[in-house]
Specification:
Largest sheet: 5 strands, mixed
Helix content: 55-70%
Distance between the termini: 86 Å
Radius of gyration: 27 Å
CATH class of the largest domain: Alpha Beta
Order of helices and strands: HEHHEHEEEHHHHHHHHH
Number of strands: 5
CATH architecture of the largest domain: 2-Layer Sandwich
Strand content: 5-15%
Structural class: alpha+beta
Length: 313
């Protein structure tokens, strides 16, 4: 197909392509944020003319304005495979979906390779100019491991099965299978971790002297003890490290809670006290284990809360 008329079509619509990409990315990011989906990143791109022309020539399209559906492209990279199900629902609620393909589902069961969820969508009306509503957007959704595989496979220039030398096929299929298994195992760990923390936080699994001190059990204990306080994950790790260094485990923490129950009740009831869960926990341990935690005597938290401390000494 002649390049000149295609160049004119592309150049004429270039600004609209970019506008559609920007609007689509903004809508998608706001919807994902509203549903609290943790992501590695989202990105947007307009296909270059060379890539646009190469695809038309390769696919032998006769009506490229209609047949090329990925001039505007968005990509979402998430952490866990279950997030893809949530993202699917978000895309369905945000855009008009004209086509959906799960690249993993269409592969033969004994084959491994490129996996990703692909959507062809159009923007919702939202008072936009009519011509913008006719442009299609391709949205690709992947986990981090799917993303890594796609990029490395592309770097090796092995995007299609027929590109791969016979002597490398077995190795690449093994790597792909390992990544797929890793995706499943990360998801399993995430689900088991969430279940464990929910049971501990809700009190359905009791804490005891023998409970292992790790970041999940420690944060669950703080969540159950100070449910009205905000959590600061980075500070949780630092506080847990301090406790382990001081030889304090759940036996001392549980004892501290029993001896300091009046403090716990007060701190949860008094909204004017601006403390995080970690700060509230640190103060409780200081009040009930002052001899062991004398290293905190000059801690800024203790200095800032002398009046509160004096109530319970």
């Amino acid at each position: 197909m002649n390049r000149n008329p295609l160049t004119k079509i592309y150049d004429l619509n270039r600004a609209s392509y970019e506008k559609v990409c920007d609007i689509g990315k903004d809508l998608l990011e706001k919807a994902l944020k509203a549903e609290k989906i943790d992501l590695l990143h989202t990105s947007a791109r307009v296909k270059s003319f060379e890539s646009f022309y190469e695809k038309i020539a390769r696919k032998q399209y006769q009506n490229p304005s209609v047949e090329v559906e990925d001039i505007c492209g968005l990509r979402v990279v998430c952490f866990f495979s279950k997030d893809l199900e949530k993202i699917h629902q978000i895309i369905n609620n945000t855009f008009y979906i004209s086509n959906f393909t799960d690249k993993g589902e269409i592969q033969d069961p004994d084959r491994f390779g490129y996996r990703s969820n692909h959507y062809i969508v159009k923007l919702p009306k939202l008072g936009l100019r009519k011509e913008l509503l006719n442009f299609k957007i391709e949205i690709q959704c992947r986990t981090i491991l799917m993303h890594a595989w796609a990029h490395i496979q592309g770097k090796l220039e092995y995007k299609k099965e027929e590109h791969i030398p016979k002597e490398f096929k077995r190795k690449l299929h093994q790597i792909s299978a390992i990544l797929e298994l890793a995706d499943e195992q990360f998801q399993t760990i995430k689900m088991e971790k969430d279940t464990m923390r929910n049971l501990l936080s809700a009190g359905e699994t009791p804490f005891s002297d023998s409970t292992e001190m790790n970041i999940d059990t420690f944060m669950s204990y703080m969540d159950s003890t100070f449910p009205k306080r905000k959590m600061r994950y980075r500070y949780s790790k630092l506080l847990m490290k301090e406790l382990l260094s001081a030889g304090i485990g759940f036996d001392e923490i549980i004892e501290s809670h029993k001896n300091g129950y009046l403090y716990v009740e007060y701190i949860e009831k008094e909204k004017s006290i601006q403390l995080s869960q970690e700060e509230a926990m640190k103060l409780m341990l200081y009040l009930t284990h002052r001899a062991k935690m004398s290293v905190w005597d000059n801690d800024q938290l203790m200095t800032d809360n002398l009046e509160l401390i004096s109530r319970f000494i």
